[in-house]
Amino acid sequence: MIFQNLLASTSALLVALVQLGSMDVMGSSKGIKVLPVDLSPSIVYVEKDGIKGFIYPEDWDDNDARVMCKQLGYKSGVALGPWDLVRLQPNVTFGAIQVWDRDNYRLVCAEGFDDLAAQAVCRSLGFTYGKSICCSAFGRMDYSIVYSNINCTGIESSILECDYVKYFANCTSEHYASVACSNSPENEEFELKIHQSGKVTTRHFDNSGFICANGFDDTEATVICKEMGYKGGSAYFHSRHTKYSTVPLLGVPWLANIACEGTEKYLGKCGKINWGSVGTCDENRLPAVYCYNKTGFSFALVNGTDKDNGLVVFTVDDKEGAICLRDSVTEERQKLAAIVCKQLGYGNGGLLLNGTDAENEFTARKLFPGKSDMFITKIKCKGNESSLAECTFRILEGRYDFPEDWISITLDGCESSSCYRTRSYNRGYAFLNELSCWAGKRRLVVKCFL
Fold first, then answer.
1. What's the pLDDT tens digit per position in 297-318?
2. Chain-wide mean pLDDT for the chain?
3. Which of 227, 257, 292 is the last residue in one of the domains?
4. Which is deepest, 97, 119, 146, 306, by most CB within 10 Å?
5. Which pairing describes strands 129-133 and 104-108: parallel, antiparallel, or unpaired?
6. Which residues form a coiled coil (predicted)?
7. CA 176, CA 199: separation in Å to the nearest integer?
């Protein structure tokens, strides 16, 4: 084994995973001192003739690690590489940077963290290239930010070789740093996909990802739809999580505040295509688009006793749709009625029918018969919105469009078969609620006033 000076490259730092608690001891052999390790895993540092260094792992294996750990008074140990000190969450190719330190993982501050630092992180994980993703891009992390003021030159093989400040973190933003890694250099190429549910995803730098809701509106939707061969598009938003379904891990938050004008033929021509520079991505909403070839969305009240009340319908191209309330309670329906009326230019509004839910359902089907071609469903609003565009919802155009993002039924967390049966029943009931829209049920009927 070769003794390396600490000034040499730490591209292959040796790590020993000690299997017992730390001990304040120092071993020595033939004038070489093995410096004490803290809680595992730890880099093995040594000292000879007053010069400190580390062990270069040429032919270093678990046998060597066991001898070293026993020399320090431990029971045993295993050899690890430098990549074991740094990991990414939630994925092996992208995520928040987590550095093992003493007894736990720590986070790196996003302030000043650039692509040179990202490359150092990715090199230590076996990739050739890296890109910084800002900021706190992957949600809440259960670790503290300890590393800050990261300064890399671009030649480092690990972020631990860069200059940094530790434990006195100057991280006023309180955002952690993230990266995306690849073995291909970054270029302007990317792929867009519009899913069956309308959500938009993109792939760039060999990593799948998505567009943040921040700054996303009809202009971006129009450009995306044009790129897909349509005349135009309308933007709306999905809720990231619902009771019986969840949006799967979408990948890297690649873009935000794209600033399209709507006249561009493809997204790459919009004003602010800064891959990975998303700021704080909206955690509650996910952009989606509905593409059309003739005319976009328009809302109206139909079949009422006068122009100020009736069934809420929308049209797009040659298709007509309704708002399906599904399992919403009366209070939520009242809020939604008021929002729709404001969107139509009224001061306020409420539900047209005031009986029980069962009475309203029977009366509504009698007064407003017929079926629709498509539905707006799974609507979630706060109540202070002035249009549906500020809420989250789904658009169903096919009878069985809705299962795309549904989670599978599992036994995870269940201790009996009855738990699984209950989950299956609840999921089946939710499916029936979805299908009830197509039977002409649960449609929104409102009365508006100035």
1. 999 999 998 999 999 999 999 9
2. 82
3. 292
4. 97
5. unpaired
6. none
7. 27
Of 384, 249, 240, 372, nearest to 311 (Cα)?
A: 372
pTM beyond 0.85: no
Q: Is 195 in the same domain as 220?
A: yes
- For 206, the token pair is 């060999």
Of 285, 279, 237, 284, the closest CA to residue 258 belongs to: 279
Cα–Cα distance, 431 to 417 (Å, whole number)? 21
Question: For residue 316, what pLDDT is reported?
Answer: 95
Helix (H) or strand (E) run with residue 364 in it = helix 357-367
Q: Where are the alpha helices (DSSP H) in 112-203?
A: 115-124
Contacting residues for 45 by C-beta, under 8 A, at least 6 apart: 6, 34, 35, 52, 53, 54
Q: Residue 83 carries which DSSP code? A: G
| Dihedral, 195, 200, 203, 208 alpha carbons, nearest 10 | -80
Better-predicted residue by pLDDT, 12 or 342: 342
The three-point CA angle 353-386-311 to 5° equals: 30
Environment class of residue 423 by beta-carbon count within 10 Å: exposed (0-12), middle (13-18) or buried (19+)?
middle
What is the tally of structural domains in the chain? 4
Strand partners, 246: 241
Of 119, 114, 234, 110, residue with least CA distance to 173: 110
Of 219, 114, 113, 115, the C-alpha closest to 171 is 113
Per the structure, the complete domain to which residue 34 belongs is given by 2-80
Give burial (CB, 10 Å; 0-12/13-18/19+) of 402.
buried
Q: Please indicate, yes or no, whether residues 418 and 307 belong to a single structural domain of this protein.
A: yes
pLDDT at 370: 79
pLDDT number for residue 32 = 53
